[in-house]
TrEMBL record:
This is Isoprene synthase. GO terms for molecular function: magnesium ion binding; terpene synthase activity. It comes from the Eukaryota. GO terms for biological process: diterpenoid biosynthetic process. Residues 60-211 form the Terpene synthase N-terminal domain. The keyword Metal-binding applies. The lineage of its organism: Eukaryota, Viridiplantae, Streptophyta, Embryophyta, Tracheophyta. The keyword Metal-binding applies. Pfam families: Terpene_synth (PF01397), Terpene_synth_C (PF03936). It comes from Arundo donax. Keywords: Magnesium, Metal-binding. Residues 269-506 form the Terpene synthase metal-binding domain.
Length: 564
């Protein structure tokens, strides 16, 4: 059954009179956000075109794929297989060989804890990372022998760069209670920083990148684009794998470009940027974020759902953070709870546009899910939007009341106001997995993996936006609150929040790699939401104020094919 949509009715006479008494736009707050950096007309012109000149004939591509599969299967040593699987995952081509990789890792996981990697620290750490990171049980004994009783390295030579880097990367897959990984992370990072000046340029760039953003925290598609270039410059690279990885990247990029063009068409038709001129217009950045959550070719509908929801969230966030009065925001939150056409009549005119667009967009998604899955998700989407608005309203009341929440209060509300739960609720029905009403009821309770990944989203956002928000006089972020509560300077606060973020990652790891009663694809979506949050906000606000580096990433992902 088609669901009712929301139109934009003309306001009653009395509301028009009330609107005339509202503060004029120039009296409202302004965040002075930079304008949209992308030419929508150029993006629309890509629709139906693609980059066919960079695509390989399917028969040629399949031959390449078969050769890469043979290369994987015929590797004689388990350590060599692990290194190749790691390379394939980083290049973004492992999805072609999931059955073969699962069989290999299953076989390796059944070996004794240390054999046959006893004398090779790099391989021991890689084995741990690959098994745990792919959902296999693996004993921490594999790495516990590396530390002595004083938490210093026992068996890792200070000059073993490969071993130190492998241990460092493995340490980020820790669970709660595995405190030795904190020491392994700190010790290996310290040793690698000391060794940086002595490394060759290729190794130095690899290590420096890992110290900035560890591999486990990187968004897979961004990693693929970076690693293709890095691996090609490696002396030990395989030309066959490079050729296949480049071609596959271009094939997938062509699909993503078409999706982006279609979403641009939707966004220009919605025209919220023209109706809410005070808000950030960030469709392309939202698609980038959605691509970070789920990039695989068969999940276009999932990316579409996340992109649309996130683009609307960005505008709604600016309504609550910047433009709306407290009375207006209370009205909007109440109207979102009602979720019907008549509720829009009580709203100021500028709010009707986004209110109706939210309802229409989510109802269209729910209608699609109902046709495809036979399950109603309208209540799920409605709950997500209402809960987000309530969290936004709490922060608005803090701002208008000049209230300083405790860090606990802030984060208990902040994981919801990050919008992570809303995005994940919209992603779930489009993950190409059958689900039941029990799954939906489970999601409505916001399970731990949703809360933890969303809390990482919040903390990454705070790290990038703290300074600008402080200048605007916004409600304090986690950085500012920690400074006040602990009489700390900003550097100390950032360091403390970084360690807290790493601690939350342990919860995400536990939920993603241990609790297999969750749908695998959803665990992966939550994991990747945490990762893209790090990447979007690394070195600056990649959503609110994307710099040249962030724009370069988007171009390389969606507009500029790999060159052969």
């Amino acid at each position: 059954m088609a669901m009712a949509t929301c139109s934009w009715p003309s306001p009653p006479v009395q509301l028009r009179v009330m609107a005339s008494k509202q503060p004029q736009p120039e009296q409202r707050r302004s965040a002075n956000y930079q304008p949209n950096a992308w030419d929508y007309s150029s993006l629309l012109s890509l629709k139906g075109r693609g980059n066919d000149q960079n695509l390989t004939n399917p028969s040629v591509f399949n031959k390449l794929k078969a050769s890469v599969r043979d290369l994987l299967i015929n590797k004689p040593e388990p350590s060599a297989k692990l290194r190749l699987i790691d390379t394939m995952q980083r290049l973004g081509i492992s999805y072609h060989f999931e059955e073969e990789i699962s069989a290999i890792l299953s076989s390796i996981s059944q070996e004794s804890a240390k054999a046959p990697f006893m004398d090779d620290v790099a391989s021991m750490a890689l084995k741990f990372r690959m098994l745990r990171g792919n959902g296999f049980d693996v004993s921490t004994e594999l790495l516990s022998s590396l530390l002595d009783g004083k938490n210093s390295f026992r068996t890792v030579p200070h000059s073993d760069i490969d071993g130190l880097l492998s241990v460092y990367e493995a340490s980020y897959l820790a669970f709660h209670g595995e405190d030795m990984f904190d020491e392994l992370r700190k010790n290996s990072a310290s040793a690698l920083k000391d060794l940086l000046p002595s490394m060759d340029s290729h190794m130095r760039s690899n290590v420096a990148y890992s110290l900035e953003v560890p591999l486990h925290l990187r968004a897979p598609r961004l990693e693929a684009r970076w690693f293709i270039d890095h691996y090609e410059r490696c002396m030990a690279s395989d030309d066959l794998i490079i050729q296949f990885a480049k071609q596959d990247f271009n094939n997938v990029q062509s699909m993503h470009t078409q999706e982006l063009a279609a979403l641009t068409s939707w966004w220009t038709d919605v025209a919220l940027g023209e109706k809410l001129t005070f808000a950030r217009d960030r469709l392309i950045e939202c698609f980038h974020y959605a691509n970070g959550v789920m990039w695989e070719p068969n999940l276009a509908k999932c990316r579409e759902a996340i992109t649309k929801a996130f683009a609307l969230v960005v505008h709604l966030d600016d309504v609550y953070d910047v433009y709306g009065t407290l009375d207006e925001l209370s009205l909007f939150t109440e109207a979102m709870g009602r979720w019907d056409v008549s509720a829009s009549e009580a709203l100021p005119e500028y709010m009707r546009a986004i209110y109706c667009t939210i309802i229409n967009t989510s109802n269209e998604m729910a209608d699609h899910v109902l046709r495809e899955q036979g399950q109603s998700t309208q209540h799920l989407f409605h709950k997500g939007w209402h809960d987000l608005c309530k969290a936004f309203l709490v922060e608005a009341k803090w701002h208008y009341g000049n209230y300083r929440p405790t860090l606990s209060e802030y984060l208990n509300n902040g994981w919801m106001s990050s919008s992570g739960p809303l995005l994940l609720l919209h992603a779930f029905p489009f993950l190409n997995e059958k689900f039941s009403t029990k799954h939906l009821e489970w999601l409505e309770r916001y399970p731990r993996i949703v809360q933890s990944s969303s809390k990482i989203f919040r903390l990454c956002n705070d790290s990038a936006t703290h300074s600008d928000e402080l200048q605007r006089g916004d409600a304090p972020s986690s950085i500012a609150i920690y400074m006040l509560e602990n009489n700390a300077d900003e550097q100390e606060s950032r360091a403390a929040m970084h360690e807290y973020t790493i601690d939350i990652w342990k919860s995400v790891n536990e939920e993603a790699f241990c609790h297999h009663h969750y749908p695998k694809s959803f665990r992966k979506a939550c994991l990747n939401l945490s990762r893209i949050s790090h990447c979007i906000y690394q070195g600056g606000d990649g959503l609110g104020a994307p710099d040249d580096e962030k724009k370069k990433q988007i171009k390389e992902l969606f507009l500029e094919p790999c060159i052969f």
